Amino acid sequence: MQYVGIDRQIRKNNFNSLLLLITFPVLLLGMCYAFVYLAADKQNEDPQALFLRIFPFVLIAVGIWFFIAWMGNAAMIRMATGSKPLERRNNKRVYNLLENLCISQGMQMPKLYIIEDDSLNAFASGIDQRSFSISLSRGIIEKLEDDELEGVLAHELTHIKNRDVRVLIISIIFVGIFAFLAEMAFRSLRFAGSGRRSKNDKGSGAAILIAIVVTAIAYFISILLRFGISRKREYLADAGGADMTKKPYALASALRKIAGDPAIEAVESRDVAQLFIDNPTPSSHRSASWDNLFATHPPIEKRIELLEQFA
Q: How far is CA 54 from CA 45, 67, 160, 251, 299, in A?
């Protein structure tokens, strides 16, 4: 059995991901309209008219948030992971492996970073040629054989080649907006619950409670959409990496070693964790079906099994 139709799968997955990303702003506007509807009902105003007045300010606020996150994503990710530039003179082996892969694919070589951690993990990030990068832990460099490390690098290059990292960063930005709104709604309820209560407070409290429910639902849906994007692309990156090296057994072997020790101490953000080849947080290896619904990655055992079918 061979990797047949991988380009077609990538195009289909990119189209589905585009639909998912369109859903984020639609969901945001729907949530804003729900807030406006509650406010308009309380003030006896027309919901449509109030929404049209507020709509430009919502767009401006989201635009500013998105611009800052878009421009500063590389620095934020480096801060969140503690990664530093990987020097060529001290790591010629890694540079040679990556350069050979890039030459074979006609790709510009991304920047290389290192995370000083003995665990085994890696991730790709960036939004364009200037910011594309691959970060490797110290452990994955020292503990993998050349063929295995080449498979990991090919996996991450596939993420860059398919523009997976750009899509994931966009989804992370939108989920961050929903998380911020959910936090604001929750703080509003706590503020409303403190201090003296009056008859009007009951109505305000109810409105804030409804707003929290609406925000929580939107946040929950946004997380599911993000997870859908992440899980699908891991399978494609595995297939693309194996096809790039023609050594699926090597990537399978690397994933097996990574599964034994993927935890990166510096990584605490669940948003950043989904960028890695395997989720670096302790909660990534749950087996319950309910937990798998919220997993940022497909089960690594399943990924290894699929790769070994082509060995």
A: 13, 20, 38, 51, 43
Residue 237, SS3 per DSSP: helix
User: Residue 67 pLDDT more than 50?
Assistant: yes
Per-residue model confidence as pLDDT tens digits over 70-129: 788 888 888 889 999 999 988 999 999 999 999 999 999 999 999 999 999 999 999 888
Which domain covers residue 257, as residue numbers? 6-308
What is the Cα–Cα distance from 157 to 98, expressed in whole angstroms?
9
Q: Is residue 130 part of a domain?
A: yes
43 membership: H or E segment, kind and range = helix 6-43
* DSSP H or E run through 124: strand 122-125
Question: What whole-number distance in Å separates Cα of residue 274 and Cα of residue 228?
Answer: 11
Residues annotated catalytic, as ranges: 156
* pLDDT digits 0-9 by tens, 204-219: 556 566 667 777 777 7
279 three-state secondary structure? coil
Q: Count CA atoms closer than 13 A to 285's CA, side-chain side.
A: 13
**Cα 39–45–46 angle (5° rounding)?**
105
Question: Does any domain span residue 286?
Answer: yes
What does DSSP assign to residue 86? P
What pTM was computed for the model? 0.79
The number of beta carbons lying within 10 Å of the beta carbon of residue 249 is: 16
Report the number of distinct structural domains present in the chain.
1
- What six digits make up the tokens of 68? 């800052």
Evaluate whether residue 1 is within a structural domain: no
Q: Which DSSP symbol is given to 125?
A: E
Helices within 128-267 (DSSP H only): 138-143, 146-161, 164-193, 199-245, 248-260
- Taken in order 160, 162, 168, 173, the sign of the CA dihedral is positive
Contact 126, 201 (CB under 8 A): no
- β-pairing, 111-115 vs 133-137, is parallel
